[in-house]
Amino acid sequence: MRSATPSFSTKERILGVAETLFARHGFAGASLRQVTAAAKVNLAAVNYHFGSKESLIEEVFRRRLDQLNRHRLAALASVQARSEHTLEDVLDAFIRPALEQSMDSAGGAAFVRVLARAYAEHDERLRKFLSDNYGHVLRDFAAAFARLLPNLDKEELYWRLDIVAGALTYAMADFGMIKRKSDVSERSHREQAAQHLVRFAAAGLRA
Amino acid sequence: MRSATPSFSTKERILGVAETLFARHGFAGASLRQVTAAAKVNLAAVNYHFGSKESLIEEVFRRRLDQLNRHRLAALASVQARSEHTLEDVLDAFIRPALEQSMDSAGGAAFVRVLARAYAEHDERLRKFLSDNYGHVLRDFAAAFARLLPNLDKEELYWRLDIVAGALTYAMADFGMIKRKSDVSERSHREQAAQHLVRFAAAGLRA
DNA sequence: CTAACATTCAAACGATCGTTTGACCCCGGA
DNA sequence: TCCGGGGTCAAACGATCGTTTGAATGTTAG
Predict the structure, then answer these.
(1) What is the model's pTM?
(2) Of all helices (H) and strands (E), which one includes residue A65?
(3) Whole-number Å distance, CA B113 to C1' D29?
(4) With an 8 Å Cβ cutoff, is A190 touching chain B?
(5) Which pLDDT band, with edges at 50, 70 and 90, does B107 fall under?
């Protein structure tokens, strides 16, 4: 009776609210007092459960990225297991898991916006954390792209992957704001969105 | 180089330093005390010359965007004056002025990173300010794209323009960090970069 | 029941935030 | 010469920041 959502623990409520507020106001812009107030928990709960604001931020990433990158690597492995696969297949393996996550979980849509923020922030600590924990995923995909584009020299490939990654991150972050025709369901809308992104990125990589 | 020369007024030094620190730490992350210390001016100078931190942020944008968008509109008009012009021409009119600015002025490179931050921030006040003052430029370009892509319905076009704008903003923001071959000059490097971006974006829009 | 531990709570810590104040300096026009 | 206003300055304002404390409460095992 103490809370409207007693099924969620204090830790989980903090993570969920922090995700939303970090997406909306940035890491420096959202204060722990705003987070704990919205989560209906005591201010000290953050430092008790996570140790510091910095660690809370990392935990917000870890909770989603572990699952997301597992799905991405699985999708990539599935694609590469086939005798033949195209650039579009690899791009789909990268994009679709992010779209799925932004759909199925309530905070998933907020998290892709957090990701876009992390992309824009050039904060050294945060970049190192992401690179240390999830850098191997991006390297695997880069290798897959390199195999499919043998005529492109390495420097040029990295160039384009950088643009593609930035474009995809921004595009996915803005998904929640793009109006859709009312006669198509949410799922088919995202389905179309994924196909558009894949074709767009593939055209850019092959140009 | 001559960062603390007395030939620059207090106002100009504040604007220059604020641009750099906003690019590095964000609008909420860079404090007025950091700005005024780096600019070697008194803390109160910001509120004296600009009124508030919010107004300082707007002035940082205004100083660069006025010139940037003037160049963009001039380039667009020049392109459209020709009897025939392609998608690549219009994209070039949008991209090249930004690249020029990021090259010729010392703080220009920092400013495109500030722009990328503004893109990631969904702050209501900042978006309204930018939309009110520079929205007509984007509308002019959107109309030019629509004329060149008559088979694309409006909804799909806005979709792709959103992706393209995000990709270009991000790519330009990261220009300073992309390694270039040492045997090509800075100018020719940017020249190649512009061509790559244009071809990449055109392929995505036509896909 | 009691002891031991886990969690929550109100309150306060020192640091830093944006902003304001009022004295002070410099300098061109009476 | 004096005056007055634009500019700079150190200092302080109240608010808010992340973090810490110690007591109160809840939970679990012996």
Answers:
(1) 0.86
(2) helix A53-81
(3) 58
(4) no
(5) confident
